[in-house]
Every structure is written in C-alpha cells, then in structure tokens.
Prior knowledge:
With about 290 residues, the chain is an alpha/beta fold. It is built from eleven helices and eight strands.
Amino acid sequence: MEYYDAFKIGIMNLKDMNKSALVLEGGGMRGIFTAGVLDYLMDNELWFPYTIAVSAGASNGISYMSRQRGRAKFGDIDLLKIRPYIGMKHFIRGKGYIDLNYIFYEYPQKHYPLDFKTYSESSNRFIAVTSDCISGKAKYMEEKSDEKRLCDILKASCSLPFIGPIAYVDGIPMLDGGITDPLPIKKAMADGFTNIVVVLTRNKGYRKNIRKRPIPKFIYKQYPNLRDALFERSKEYNDTLQYIEQLEEEGKIIVIRPQKKIEVGRTEKDPKKLTDFYDEGYEEAKRMLSLK
C-alpha cells in the first residue's frame, strides 16, 4: 500500500471531509494544470469545505467554488481565441501584460457568467490570498455577499508585480498573493484543517533562485514593506516548499503536481501546450485521489 492510501480513504470519506482543505498554488498560465485537477474533483463530487488559493489558483478556484465544471478551462484556453488578453499591447495601454480587468470584469459578463448565487449560498469557505502593499503582509480575504468586491479580491490576488498595475480592494493597494504567502498551507493548518491536499504547478524539486540584490529604490518606493517582501519572497517560497515536501514524505498530506517536464510558461498562449497541461492535471488528480 502506498504511503498516501490511508489518507486517500479519509479524503473520500464524507464523514472526514469537514477536516479537509484544498491549497492551490498560482503560477500564471501554469494554473491550467490546476483547472484540470479541479474538474476532476467536480466530476467526482469531491467538495472541500475549505479552499485557500493564490493568484491563478484563486482565478481557477472560484469556478470550483461555483461548481462550474469547465469554466476555468474555458477562461484559460478558449477565451484566448476570442480575445487575446496576454501581450505587450495591454502593458503599453497600462492594463498590465495580462489584462486582468477583462478577465474579472468583462469576461464574466460577455462570455461565461460566474454562478455567484451557487457560490454565495455554499457553506464551503473560499479564501483568496493577496499582498497588502502598505504592510507587506499577506491578507486572507473572503467575500460571499458582494460580487464586485469578490472580483476585486480575485484581481488583486492575480496582480503580478512589475508587469501590471497595483490593484485595490476597499481602497487598499494590493498585489499578487504569491509575494507574501505563495503556498498557504500553514494558514490552512492554523484554521484547524488536518487533511490537506496541495496542488502545485511546478515539478518536484523545483526551487526559485534567491534574490541577492535589493529591489531598485525607484520600484515601489512608496511601499518599503512591499519591497522587503519582494526581496524575501523566493526564500519564503523555497522554505515552504521544503516544508510541504517533508509533510508529503511523512504521509501527512497529498501533493498533486506535474510529473512531466513543464512546457507551459507563466504567460503561455499556445492552446495545445495549455490543453496538454490541463489533461495532465486531470490525470494526476485521478491517479492521486482515486481509490484502488
């Protein structure tokens, strides 16, 4: 019996689902892997009572929370054919290299509405991680009564530094949650969850290069705490990955991650590469979570 089999039985047992949490990493367009995982969960009616997500994980995770199978895949692949929302033309126009205004405000209205009613009436919690530019700390945000505010939170969670404008939630400047808490497993634990599934968008053993030079003083000069967080983020990411791998080896959590060499970049636009990565996510979820 593989080391995670006993835990898999717990995940599949609805009596234990109230102790189960889902943690979703970001990664830009690599999040299409996560979309495949989430569609597998929906196909098998696996509904976690607690989902905490960062950046692209939050963008894809909201479709899981609204129980809209295929919506995340549509947004990551099919929508690019309708309206290419990635590219320098958006950056030049001040919208960021990825046009998040289109993704979170226009796309739901024009192409694939979010089922906010289903989401808001669910008892399951959804936390999107953002980074407060003023404090330089992570903010864990939930919203089920105001759809516009929810979209503001999702946009903030996905607002990559350097290549996009700062977002605002309740008038507070915010950026990508991956700056301050890229893998929020410790938050899930602090909230009392013991059965945890982590979805990563990088291969096992991946580590970020540690920044050795400070952030140039002219970048985010009005937000010194944010600059500190940006300087430390690679170390924070690597340390948390090490912790996750340790828990995985001890059989305490399940980690679903890509097994093949990753061909998808953060701003990938190739539909075949994206579709293949989505399929891998679906199959990896099936391999890791199916009972034998």
